[in-house]
Design brief:
The complex is a heterodimer.
Chain A: E1 2-6, H1 8-16, H2 20-24, E2 29-34, H3 35-39, H4 44-55, E3 60-62, H5 67-76, H6 82-94, E4 97-99, H7 104-114, E5 119-120, H8 122-131, H9 137-153, H10 157-174, H11 176-180
Chain B: H1 5-18, H2 23-30, H3 34-41, H4 49-58, H5 63-67, H6 78-82, H7 85-88, H8 90-113, H9 133-150, H10 161-167, E1 171-175, E2 181-187, E3 193-197, H11 202-218, E4 226-228, E5 231-237, H12 244-257, H13 260-269, E6 279-281, E7 293-295, H14 307-317, H15 321-330, H16 336-346, H17 381-394, H18 400-409, H19 414-426
Parallel strand pairs in B: 1-3
Antiparallel strand pairs in B: 2-3, 2-5, 4-5, 6-7
Helix pairs in contact in B: 2-3, 8-17, 9-12, 11-12, 14-15, 15-16, 17-18, 17-19, 18-19
Classes of the chains: A alpha/beta, B alpha+beta.
Chain lengths: ~190, ~425
């Protein structure tokens, strides 16, 4: 079974899209998160959802204890956030996959250590959940639509673009027509 | 041989002991029970990454030090040794720990960005051993004049002392310190860090910073500093004002912030500071008889320096009114009696309505509160940390997650950090 360590941004995005459970229920994967990542989820409602997933064994909490992993983590903390460093250190040593949507330095470092095949993100997880029949493409389109509209209304342009990009990537993985058919596909309003 | 869990456990025990904490105290601050910490230190329970981060912060050590090959069990950070209050006061310990972490991050980022060699650096003056107060005052005055000359400051005020020192490669750190401590100077691995007590009014803070500046320039051969593997430190306590090194630093601070020429010119512009009955002898080459004299007569009391001139000078040079009075007295521009009267006024002893820093009194300082009193806010190490972190993010040397951690450490609000990160993303090359 494929072991996947989730970074905080992936967990938060899945919660925002109300897809956390659907993704964590994919039977072909074992989902884990380091306690460092879980500490970064500070919103009480998000915490409750994560704790619920842990209590239902959908997500496993992992503490870093091995000396070499701790050493790697301490070095990585110079350039990465705490949760990112912990996740990359533990995936590097275990052969597991890391799921993170961060670009820039984290992606560079992760690609160097894990290669493309052991680096995943929210779009891949969502595409897998759709392929596995846990999530309906139409539902995802609608949820992204809602989240992006809220972000747009509150002038959170970056957040709106972020979710639009996630949806585009899921579409690309699934095939555009497939995902958009029968639903009102979200497109950012014109004039920006 | 590699580090074992047992060896790491032993390191944690010795790091705790070196920092003077009992197992009970450390466990409480870590948020675990004493038996849990005892188990960790006995190697019966593995320490986790999160615990290791918190323990390293509690013991003021870098997490990499605890895991390093050449770990030094008794290497207590020099600041902990110098600031003895940190042993008994958890708030001071936390402030020192935070300061050390901030410095580590700044130095790490400078190293990462290759910007650590660009500053000219503060010079170190070799001065004679201090033997008396007069010599200490004289040396302080002379050093201030030399520094002003080196920096081409002329006789002008220094509007932003923090920025000036940062441009010389020093790090300026405003932090909570014990009440008895006005500041400290710290030299970790060739860097110069000047720390001042955050709770002072801006003008006192400026004076303390100028005082620490003097220590950084000349006090590395005297006996007062404390040395450890990670550097040297001089801590300035309010009770040590008569110690010769402190006398010199105080004289330096006053002369640097209120240069003699600048003060005289400022008063001259106000039409003050001249004798009321000036007499001048007119010399002529070859004259055989007595030289004629010319005598002026200025209006009575026109040259007296009063509350208004002191308030204006303090405003102009960014010092407290009390400091301005003492400086004018030392420059022989005030007599003993007037000095005492002005000091009483500056300290608010001349009645509430006359207190210069009482906003309700409508005194010479206007309506500002003491906290908003003259003197611009200092540029602090926190601002530098943010600037370096942004540049490191732009160059993709650090991740966005790391940037947000550093921004939090710099005291930047989450939403502001988010905006800055997006701006930086737009500039990524």
């Amino acid at each position: 079974m494929k072991e996947i360590y989730l970074d905080a941004n992936v967990i938060i995005d899945l919660i925002a899209l109300e897809c956390l459970t659907e993704v964590l229920e994919i039977p072909s994967a074992l989902f884990r998160a380091t306690e460092n990542v879980l500490k970064e989820i500070t919103d009480p409602e998000e915490r409750e959802l994560v704790e619920s997933a842990i209590s239902r064994d959908l997500l496993q909490r992992v503490a870093l204890t091995e000396i070499e992993v701790l050493r790697d983590y301490a070095q990585l903390k110079r350039i990465l956030g705490d949760g990112e460093a912990a996740t990359l250190a533990v995936t590097s040593s275990s052969g597991a996959t890391m799921a993170s949507d961060e670009k820039g330095r984290l992606r560079k470092e992760a690609l160097k250590r894990l290669g493309d095949e052991r680096l995943s993100g929210t779009p891949e997880l969502l595409a897998n959940a759709i392929a596995d029949g846990r999530l309906r493409a139409q539902d995802l389109e609608e949820r992204v639509h809602v989240v992006a509209e809220i972000a747009h209304a509150s002038a959170a342009t970056h957040r709106e673009m972020h979710f639009t990009r996630i949806l585009d990537e899921v579409r690309a993985r699934r095939g555009r027509q497939d995902l958009a058919s029968g639903s009102q596909a979200y497109r950012p309003p014109k004039g920006r | 041989m590699g580090l074992t869990h047992e060896a790491l456990a032993e390191r944690l025990r010795s790091a705790r002991e070196a920092s003077g904490l009992t197992q009970e105290e450390a466990a409480r601050q870590l948020g675990v029970s004493r038996p849990t910490l005892a188990q960790i230190e006995a190697g019966k329970r593995k320490v986790t990454g999160l615990e290791l981060v918190r323990l390293s912060s509690l013991y003021s050590r870098a997490i990499t030090d605890l895991l390093a090959v050449d770990f030094e069990p008794t290497a207590e950070p020099v600041l902990m040794r110098a600031l003895t209050e940190a042993r008994s006061d958890p708030k001071v310990r936390a402030a020192v720990s935070e300061a050390l972490s901030l410095l580590r991050d700044i130095l790490g980022l400078r190293d990462m960005l290759g910007t650590n060699d660009t500053d000219p650096g503060l010079p170190v003056y070799r001065l004679p051993r201090l033997t008396g107060r007069w010599q200490a005052v004289e040396l302080g005055n002379r050093l201030a004049a030399e520094e002003r000359q080196r920096l081409a400051l002329g006789s002008s005020p220094v509007p932003d002392l923090g920025a000036l020192l940062e441009s010389q490669g020093a790090l300026v750190l405003e932090m909570e310190l014990p009440d008895a401590v006005s500041g400290f100077t710290f030299r970790p691995n060739g860097e110069v860090v000047l720390a001042v007590h955050l709770s002072q009014t801006p003008v006192r803070l400026r004076f303390s910073l100028a005082h620490e500046y003097c220590h950084a320039l000349c006090d590395w051969s005297r006996d007062a500093f404390i040395e450890a593997k990670d550097g040297k430190a001089i801590v300035c306590r309010n009770t040590e004002g008569s110690e010769l090194g402190e006398v010199r630093a105080n004289a330096f601070a006053a002369a640097f912030l209120l240069p003699t020429d600048g003060v005289r010119r400022f008063l001259g512009d106000l039409g003050k500071g001249f004798p009321t009955r000036p007499i001048e002898t007119v010399f002529s080459e070859g004259q055989t008889g007595p030289h004629p004299t010319a005598e002026g007569r200025l209006p009575p009391h026109s040259q007296e320096i009063g509350e208004m001139e002191v308030a204006l000078a303090a405003d102009y040079f960014g010092v407290s009114q009390e400091c301005a009075v003492w400086r004018l007295f030392n420059l022989k521009l005030l007599g003993e009696g007037r000095k005492d009267r002005l000091l009483a006024w500056a300290r608010g002893e001349a009645g509430p309505s006359a207190h210069p820093e009482d906003p309700s009194a409508g005194g010479p300082s206007g309506s500002r509160s003491p906290r908003e009193n003259r003197g611009r806010p200092l540029r602090s190490a926190r601002r530098m940390l943010l600037m370096l972190a942004l540049e490191a993010l732009r160059r993709e040397e650090i991740s966005a997650g790391k940037f947000h951690e550093l921004a939090r450490e710099a005291g930047v609000e989450e939403s502001r950090a988010q905006t800055l990160a997006h701006l930086s993303e737009g500039q990524t090359t």
